[in-house]
Design a protein that fits this description.
Number of domains: 1
Distance between the termini: 27 Å
Order of helices and strands: HEEEEEEEE
Strand order of the largest sheet: 1-3-8-5
Helix content: 10-25%
CATH topology: Immunoglobulin-like
Radius of gyration: 17 Å
Strand content: 35-45%
Largest sheet: 4 strands, mixed
Structural class: mainly beta
CATH architecture: Sandwich
Length: 127
Amino acid sequence: MPTGPEVSNDLYRNMRMSVQGLATEVGTGTASAGAVTINDLCGLVTTEALTTAQNAIYTLTITNSKVAAGDLVFAHVYDGTNTQGTPTITRVTPGSSSIVIKVNNLHASAEALNGTLKIGFMVVKAL
């Protein structure tokens, strides 16, 4: 007898479709002027070389035909060639065919970013 929460057929279908999409649709791209196009449910973006100052925000806009405003988008950031600052994702906003990701440099002193970042994302489609 199952002891966990019940999963509706719609939720199960959505999870299955998301996992199937993740296995076959992983895109990559390099941003230019804070913009890139990746039409996949998962992706990895390499930013342009950044010099974002302490407490300043870099905004990345991903054009993506598979995203809708009600979807969930999970994102993470790590250093590419960057060796300074503390890049932190502070907001992820899915829209109609786009994702806007805000990366704030939260370094404790006046240390600016000095290279590229890698930003990964995963879209979970809304029911």
